[in-house]
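Key result, reporting period 2: structure in, sequence out.
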């Protein structure tokens, strides 16, 4: 059965191009499809392909992507040109893009980011003022624009929101609201028991007060945290003038 290609509409030509081997790769098919679908909607999807002129293609390209970047313009132009060339090779009466719809010159940014070691070297130079070092550091670390950094004011700084780190032993002394170690165990009270050797006599015992006990095994009337020092007073008879040494 012979197909009359002169009566092919724009939509049919687009669909057949997207289903061809030229668009076998899914990413290529999606890229071409997004451009050609908009082209078909602009010139009229139900129009005969042979009725569309090259100037209409150029006007559509300008209307849809005339204000885009040069790289975007060139990519859209290449998609339309490839579709038109495929149609011509396969016997469809497709128009060609006129010379006026030429490629645009793209500006390639040759800027390269500065190596971090070079930045650190600049920030440690003694001949550079602190103000410039601070500005460079903020620009490098935040990737913000210079105008944004220069517009900052001292009132914008939230010193209380700075992240804090501490070891478990030092968190107990820090205020609870500003400590960053909420799960750290509190510091253990110091052992208040006197350090005596087996041969050193202990201090004289008072007539009314017994020795202080810090032992964690000494029973107490009420439960207390381990390691707390408590003193129990017990009445004792007066001792002689010469105290009897007590050994542990």
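The corresponding designed sequence is given below.
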């Amino acid at each position: 059965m012979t197909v009359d290609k002169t009566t092919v509409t724009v939509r049919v030509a687009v669909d057949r191009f997207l289903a061809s081997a030229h668009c076998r790769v899914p990413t290529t098919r999606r890229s071409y499809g997004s451009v050609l679908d908009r082209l078909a909607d602009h010139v009229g999807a139900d129009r005969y392909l042979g009725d569309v002129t090259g100037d209409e293609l150029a006007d559509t390209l300008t209307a849809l992507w005339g204000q885009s970047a040069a790289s975007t313009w060139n990519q859209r132009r290449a998609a339309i040109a490839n579709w038109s060339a495929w149609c011509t090779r396969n016997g469809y009466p497709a128009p060609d893009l006129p010379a006026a719809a030429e490629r645009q010159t793209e500006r390639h940014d040759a800027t390269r980011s500065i190596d971090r070691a070079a930045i650190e070297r600049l920030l440690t130079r003694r001949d550079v003022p602190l103000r410039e070092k601070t500005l460079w550091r903020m620009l490098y670390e935040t990737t913000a624009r210079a105008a944004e950094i220069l517009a900052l004011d001292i009132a914008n700084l939230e010193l209380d929101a700075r992240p804090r780190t501490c070891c478990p032993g030092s968190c107990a002394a820090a205020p609870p609201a500003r400590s960053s170690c909420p799960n750290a165990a509190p510091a253990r009270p110091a052992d208040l028991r006197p350090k005596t050797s087996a041969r050193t006599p202990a201090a004289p015992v008072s007539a009314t007060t017994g020795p202080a006990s810090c032992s964690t095994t000494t029973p107490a009337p009420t439960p207390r945290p381990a390691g707390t020092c408590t003193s129990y007073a017990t009445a004792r008879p007066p001792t002689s003038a010469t105290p009897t040494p007590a050994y542990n």
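The longest helix spans residues 70-89. Helices lie at 10-18, 26-43, 54-65, 70-89, 116-123, 130-142, 146-150, 168-171. This case is discussed further under Risks and Mitigation.
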